[in-house]
């Protein structure tokens, strides 16, 4: 008789069905909840998440995936890694210190936060300098005990693997990594031996770093770590869990002395499967089959998943040696579709958030244990739902599909070179030396946000709201003229969010009521869903921009969000490639660009702040992504006249490694954030200069501080040493929507003054 096939989960959203977690955290931070009450409420959320997985029938339920803020911060503090600027005297890290590290406190800046691999989740970066790691508390063990005592759950403790933890930490020189491994190994060993003594069966050790490009040295270290850990707790089953892509060095990894290997069969499907088919899978190991997409929100085609399991079985991975699980933690998807009653059934039924994904896992497990017939009803419902959406009109817009099928025939190149265009543009625009401009948005004050609320709730008529927006635009046009800026903007008062605004106006997008996912700490985002063919319906930005232009002789820049940013900040349909969706968005945006031009708006900025963050995890996949991203951008901007000036903006500056693609966008002007790492950027321009219009942010918009003229002058001087002054623009780092009115005006005044100093200097005879 064969043993039963086991279902497993890798992690569950912390935020709760109604974002209770966020609300509880924020109430505690605001001093509205005492610590004991706070801990009690948090415990309830944690237990209810576990209970839900228990009710769904998941056999291996993860514990210790829950967090008070972030799992990397949990790991650091578990090891007593607290930077010296925070109060800490050893032992268990107090909650106040924990939150001070996450959010900053009086006198101590918060720890750095950065993207968790290629997700939109951000973790707190561990700072290892000057710390002496110790095991202050065995968190996985505590979580295991809690689940067992309170709910009778035989949980699967989850922890971040040693190598991933070190690789994501900072505060040490890379040649110290071997020493650090020796520091941490005893701590990990202790965690595991205590789990073993407690009678824990499975532990999940997350090593997503294994899907990134690794060196042979990395591999040797991984081998060393896992040989030591497996030897230290021989009775504990270690599931070495990877996700987000296929593993590098498959052969070496599956030879490690651990009991299980977890692979992503969604985002790393092709390569992981090929490896198994070519190399086989060891007969003494369990394969964690990441079948259900932990990163996207669509119901899976269950037949297809069963076929994949059959393929695996035919390639020496029999059903008795697999776990059926999601491709990654479900942290990256919303909690449940149950509340989405406003969505059309054809779409709503095709969605699967965390709870629904658990059901998919148990259905597949049941299919293997009891035979397909046992789940015949579920399978047929699944087929129908998928057929319904794929045959729906939303996904069958002939025109859109033809246009993207013929994408190579669509214009993607401006009809004149930058050299030719810049001459024509100079004649047309007659801008002064070092023209000044801003990135698009002006302060979204309480007044602006309230106006939008009134309008959305119906309290204000559309006409009332529109009048309000016009008033804001008019005020800021006046302000910009008074300040003496050269290229003006309308201020983006009508937009909440740079993607949502366009999603609401384009066809093919849907918005959930409650589809929140954690972005960092208590902050959650509700990404739009691109579920159908994307189509332009009517102009989206022309009215406000045209109105702004009617109030001034100076040029007003039109302001659009680029195709790649819209793509990367949405949940995207998975029945066609992301590349195809990018082209659909690009063609829709092209219509907007043309509409703006028709309306006399002949400077148009297409923002791409999310271009870089969409880079794949493996370097070898970068170029393909960059190529289609650049093409998408060009498709949306190529058809304008030579005199029309295309701007773009990016909120980062680490692009020395993608500079060729940035150049290939062929924008007439690019503005980029710089002030937080000015030195590095200047340095990278020494190596490869940039020879189209460029504006390096001359002040940091993340702080309310108004910089001095001298600071800005210095920034500009250094930039002009490596960039062509005739092509240089003066602008802030990014949009100003999060800033207050007064500081915004004060900083811009200084900025214009700085530009004027340079203009005067240029007139002076050279001595
Ligand atoms: N135009 C946008 C703004 O000014 C750009 C925002 C961004 O780069 N994230 O707000
Ligand atoms: Zn920006």
UniProtKB/TrEMBL annotation:
Catalytic activity, as annotated: 5-methyltetrahydropteroyltri-L-glutamate + L-homocysteine = tetrahydropteroyltri-L-glutamate + L-methionine
Domain Cobalamin-independent methionine synthase MetE N-terminal: 7-315
Entry-linked Pfam families: Meth_synt_1, Meth_synt_2
UniProt KW Nucleotide-binding keyword: no
Cobalamin-independent methionine synthase MetE C-terminal/archaeal domain ranges (all copies): 434-756
Cofactor binding, note field: Binds 1 zinc ion per subunit.
CDD domains to which the protein is assigned, alphabetical: CIMS_C_terminal_like (cd03311), CIMS_N_terminal_like (cd03312)
Cofactor names: Zn(2+)
Record InterPro entries: Cbl-indep_Met_Synth_N (IPR013215), Cobalamin-indep_Met_synthase (IPR006276), Met_Synth_C/arc (IPR002629), UROD/MetE-like_sf (IPR038071)
EC number: 2.1.1.14
Residues that hold 5-methyltetrahydropteroyltri-L-glutamate according to the record: 19-22, 115, 120, 523-524, 569, 613
Metabolic or biological pathway: Amino-acid biosynthesis; L-methionine biosynthesis via de novo pathway; L-methionine from L-homocysteine (MetE route): step 1/1
Gene Ontology BP, a term: methionine biosynthetic process
Binding site for Zn(2+) 1: 649, 651, 673, 734
Recorded GO MF terms: 5-methyltetrahydropteroyltriglutamate-homocysteine S-methyltransferase activity; zinc ion binding
Active site: 702
Described function: Catalyzes the transfer of a methyl group from 5-methyltetrahydrofolate to homocysteine resulting in methionine formation.
UniProt name for this protein: 5-methyltetrahydropteroyltriglutamate--homocysteine methyltransferase
Lineage: Bacteria, Bacillati, Bacillota, Bacilli, Bacillales
Gene that produces this protein: metE
